[in-house]
Amino acid sequence: MNEMLREEQFEKLTQKLDTIIKLVAGNLLKDAESKTQKVEILHNLGISTKEIAQLVGTTEASVETLKTRLKKREKMPKGGKKSGKN
Question: What is the pLDDT of residues 46-84, one digit of tens each?
Fold first, then answer.
């Protein structure tokens, strides 16, 4: 009985934390203009790919693709054009 009560309490706590995470993420993302910006913000906060996908409303594969594009963009010199140098 005691174990069952602990599991119920844990489940309720988990649900409440999930709600708080969604509210905070929603607030952080309200000014983001694109899905890519949303992914970038959440990724920079250390949120997992799975959680990002849930918060943004997309698939984990889509999040991975966007993260890959962001990494490539970070490696590019300012101005958005690749230089001939390695």
Answer: 889 999 999 899 999 999 999 999 998 888 877 655 544
Residue 19 structure tokens: 């709600």
In angstroms, the CA 22 to CA 41 distance is 14
Note if the pTM is more than 0.85. Answer: no
Residue 75 belongs to some domain of the structure = no
Q: Quick one: tokens of 58? A: 């997309």
Q: Which domain holds residue 40?
A: 33-70
Contacts of residue 77, Cβ cutoff 8 Å, sequence gap at least 6: 83
Torsion of CA 47, 62, 15, 32, to 10 degrees: 70
Please indicate, yes or no, if residue 82 is contained in any of the structural domains: no
3-state secondary structure of 74: helix
* Residue 7 falls inside a structural domain: no
